[in-house]
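User: Sequence in, structure out. Go.
Assistant: Echoing your sequence, followed by the structure tokens.
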Amino acid sequence: MASPMGSSSTAGGATDGTDDEGQDRPQNSRRAFNACAHPSDSMRRQLGTELGLEPRQVKFWFQNRRTQAKAQADRSNNCALRRENERMMAENLMFRESLKSVVCITCGGPTIRDDDCHIRLEQFKLENDFLVQEASTSNQLDSLTYLTKGENSSAVDFT
């Protein structure tokens, strides 16, 4: 049975007598595939006649060729994705390493991590609330002291 990729051989090693056509088959088949990956029935019959193949053989050859092309595209895409993943992992590692040695631009000291930042912020809020409450209490005491001194001064006899 002949295939589009070359002429068939018999058990003795002799070809079917179409050496020149057999060498052109793969090229003609590839050219036809590049022109149209999904040929119609009439195109398959025409190709079969030109290549000396049955339409079913042409149909299966195109089917196999599409599968191979898709597999090649998938492999190529997979390789590109792997390279991108490796690049991103290296970049991520570089960023992680650079974060370990970050210094404050104002004082040159070490910076605080996000976890520590949130804890410190909560501590500052609590301290602020305490100081506001203390200031309010202090102002009330000052007002009370002023009022008491004012009452005592009016009660003083200057005679």
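User: And one key feature?
Assistant: Confidence is low (pLDDT under 50) at residues 1-15.
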